[in-house]
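Notebook p. 47: complex prediction with molybdenum atom.
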Amino acid sequence: MPLFSPGFSGRRRDADVDTRLPPGQYLTEDFPVLSAGPTPGVHPDNWTFTVTDEAGGRKVWDWAAFRALPQETPHVDIHCVTRWTKLDTEWQGVSLDTLLADIETQADYALIESHGGYTTDIPLEDLLDGKAWIVHSFDGRDLEPEHGGPARLLVPHLYFWKSAKWVRGIRLLDEDVPGFWEAAGYHEYGDPWREQRYRGD
Ligand SMILES: Nc1nc2c(c(=O)[nH]1)N[C@H]1C(S)=C(S)[C@@H](COP(=O)(O)O)O[C@H]1N2
Ligand SMILES: [Mo]
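Predicted complex, structure tokens below:
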């Protein structure tokens, strides 16, 4: 008898998946596209990323400056509030720790702003300490326009609506300002492990 039967390793995989699937979620192998409007055509030549602090100070990167920053390859699970979870996604981009390193701020909140008008609000501490990136690649390829190319936010510990596609900047704020889905009744924080789908959850 083999020491490790296929059945045994199969059950081990299932147990691992169970611990990685937040409540009320199911697994998908696909990569669904969820966009509240049309895909804006953003060419890297016209792309900039702007951080605006609470006093109005601005720091701007163009595509070349952004790509020259230290790169990381986050390997993460993502959880959409429409209940799909995708395990083991591979991205490449720049940590928000890197982008925010030289910014002097006392702000507690960040409002993420995208081409096309989409916004989402996130506590600033949830963007720091290795928890969030601006990514330009998925699965070893340039990010497809439908998935937010040329660059999107990736903040995988919150529901995926917080991972703004076609990101153009981050506004640092003393007070929380609800973003697009948050103003429409979704939860202001959106922790998938606490099933914070809608306001009041
Ligand atoms: N700019 C922008 N970002 C967005 C959205 C959007 O409509 N516009 N949808 C959000 C939602 S609800 C989800 S689940 C994810 C979907 O990302 P995907 O289309 O790459 O799967 O993007 C998020 N980021
Ligand atoms: Mo979503």
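Notes: The pocket of MTE (ligand 1) is lined by residues 31-36, 80, 114, 116, 118, 147-148, 160-161, 163-166 (CB under 6 Å). Residues 5-12 have pLDDT under 50 and may be disordered.
Next step: compare against the earlier run before touching the bench.
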